[in-house]
Specification:
The protein is built from 6 helices and 15 strands. The chain is an alpha/beta fold. The protein has a 6-stranded mixed sheet with strand order 2-1-3-6-14-15, with helices on both faces.
Length: about 230
């Protein structure tokens, strides 16, 4: 059922794709549905070009017949379609569960519009149940983690971290960095936390996507809800 809802959200996003658009192609299971559905539309005559937010998305896009460009070749995009791990009030997002948060945020910022697609489980009253991915450089990782912990405590948040692993080794992002999954608990003031994280040397990027999405397409058994920021 959940996978079907993800597909319905992805299908709804196709209504916003117009011929000739430059698209940001998100990462994650819901975005994969979108990329594959987009490929079917291209086979039927639609003409677009995409920028992939991860190497995995690029692989799927090529397999689906979606032509790709880069932000160096196409630095301004018309529309970014991406998923989310949590969708809070005002379309504040937590992203990065798949590890592509840095490229996802760069692509979102380069797009005139961002639409987030998800199933209804991802909508929350307050961010924080899903651990916040924080991309950090490997050098000085312990010092960076300590700075993050101190910032969290000063904001009255919990501070528990896990260095993301894959096959028994530290997970390495497409940019060659590591990810700390931070369990802060409730995040009542995402802006304050984002500002503190932005100021910490060693933090490359974090999974708080604030003020980027202006529309969410959230699928439930009752249908697809369209929620504006």
């Amino acid at each position: 059922m959940t996978d079907d809802l993800k597909r319905r959200a992805a299908e709804a996003a196709l209504d916003y794709v117009e011929d000739g658009m430059r698209l940001g192609l998100g990462s994650g299971s819901t975005a994969v549905h979108f990329v594959r559905l987009l490929g079917a539309r291209l086979a039927a005559g639609l003409n677009v070009v995409g920028v992939a937010t991860s190497e995995e998305t690029a692989r799927i896009a090529r397999g689906a017949g979606v032509p790709l460009t880069t932000l160096d070749e196409t630095p301004e995009l018309d529309l970014d379609i991406d998923g989310a791990d949590e969708i809070g009030p005002g379309l504040a997002l937590v992203k990065g569960g798949g590890g592509a948060l840095l490229r996802e945020k760069i692509v979102a910022a380069a797009s005139a519009r961002m639409i987030v697609i998800a199933d209804s489980r991802k909508r929350v009253a307050e961010l924080g149940a899903f651990p916040l991915p924080i991309e950090v450089v490997a050098f000085g990782l312990a010092a960076t983690a300590l700075a993050i912990e101190r910032a969290a405590i000063e904001l009255g948040l919990n501070a528990a971290f896990d260095l993301r692993q894959r096959d028994g080794n530290p997970f390495v992002t497409d940019g060659g960095n590591r990810i700390l999954d931070a369990s802060f608990g409730r995040i009542p003031d995402p802006e304050a936390l984002a500002n503190r994280l932005d100021a910490i040397p060693g933090v490359v990027e974090h999974g708080l996507f604030l003020g980027l999405a202006d529309l969410a397409l959230i699928a439930s058994p009752a249908g697809v809800a369209r929620i504006e920021a």
